[in-house]
């Protein structure tokens, strides 16, 4: 790490702290040459491989914009969407991959969206999974109903039994 003051090619880490969201590390550094102190923020890069083959950095804003239309007219707030995007990022980062296919991000959206709002989930899934008939909707609705029935009998929230 080059010193921003004297451009010396080395520095010493004085203190390291993880950010509140756990996605970055703030390091306090000191230059052994001039004694100047400065901070760096380190994050693990995460890139998305799009269908076209293009690669771009992952952003939560893209997740939010991709889900917003499915949530239109539903009781879903911007704060809800921000939390959903954070959960999706956490799911994607847990794979340990530095590049992930856009399709995998779409799959990662389905679970948190289903928990947030089932109607928005059906809307999103119908586009994302390319529903072609009423039977596709009926199958998805039947799965939601079965999960509700299982949750009712077990006392667990719907959808929790398919985690892990």
From TrEMBL:
<keyword id="KW-0238">DNA-binding</keyword>
<dbReference type="Pfam" id="PF22811">
    <property type="entry name" value="Zn_ribbon_NrdR"/>
</dbReference>
<dbReference type="GO" id="GO:0005524">
    <property type="term" value="F:ATP binding"/>
</dbReference>
<keyword id="KW-0804">Transcription</keyword>
<keyword id="KW-0547">Nucleotide-binding</keyword>
<dbReference type="InterPro" id="IPR055173">
    <property type="entry name" value="NrdR-like_N"/>
</dbReference>
<dbReference type="GO" id="GO:0045892">
    <property type="term" value="P:negative regulation of DNA-templated transcription"/>
</dbReference>
<feature type="domain" description="ATP-cone">
    <location>
        <begin position="46"/>
        <end position="136"/>
    </location>
</feature>
<comment type="function">
    <text>Negatively regulates transcription of bacterial ribonucleotide reductase nrd genes and operons by binding to NrdR-boxes.</text>
</comment>
<dbReference type="InterPro" id="IPR003796">
    <property type="entry name" value="RNR_NrdR-like"/>
</dbReference>
<keyword id="KW-0067">ATP-binding</keyword>
<keyword id="KW-0805">Transcription regulation</keyword>
<keyword id="KW-0479">Metal-binding</keyword>
<comment type="similarity">
    <text>Belongs to the NrdR family.</text>
</comment>
<dbReference type="Pfam" id="PF03477">
    <property type="entry name" value="ATP-cone"/>
</dbReference>
<protein>
    <recommendedName>
        <fullName>Transcriptional repressor NrdR</fullName>
    </recommendedName>
</protein>
<keyword id="KW-0678">Repressor</keyword>
<keyword id="KW-0863">Zinc-finger</keyword>
<keyword id="KW-0862">Zinc</keyword>
<dbReference type="InterPro" id="IPR005144">
    <property type="entry name" value="ATP-cone_dom"/>
</dbReference>
<dbReference type="GO" id="GO:0008270">
    <property type="term" value="F:zinc ion binding"/>
</dbReference>
<feature type="zinc finger region">
    <location>
        <begin position="3"/>
        <end position="34"/>
    </location>
</feature>
<dbReference type="GO" id="GO:0003677">
    <property type="term" value="F:DNA binding"/>
</dbReference>
């Amino acid at each position: 790490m080059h010193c921003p003051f004297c451009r010396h090619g080395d520095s010493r880490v004085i203190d390291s702290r993880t950010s509140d969201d756990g996605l970055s590390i703030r390091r306090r550094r000191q230059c052994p040459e001039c004694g100047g102190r400065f901070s760096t923020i380190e994050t693990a890069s995460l890139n998305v491989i799009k269908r076209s083959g293009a690669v771009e950095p992952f952003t939560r804003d893209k997740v939010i914009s991709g889900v917003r239309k499915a949530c239109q007219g539903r009781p879903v707030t911007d704060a809800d969407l921000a939390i959903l995007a954070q959960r999706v990022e956490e799911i994607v980062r847990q794979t340990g991959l530095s590049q992930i296919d856009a399709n995998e991000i779409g799959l990662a959206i389905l679970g948190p969206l289903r928990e947030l709002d089932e109607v928005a989930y059906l809307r999103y899934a119908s586009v994302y999974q390319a529903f072609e008939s009423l039977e596709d909707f009926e199958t998805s609705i039947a799965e939601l109903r079965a999960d509700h029935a299982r949750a009712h009998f077990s006392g667990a929230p719907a959808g929790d039994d398919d985690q892990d």
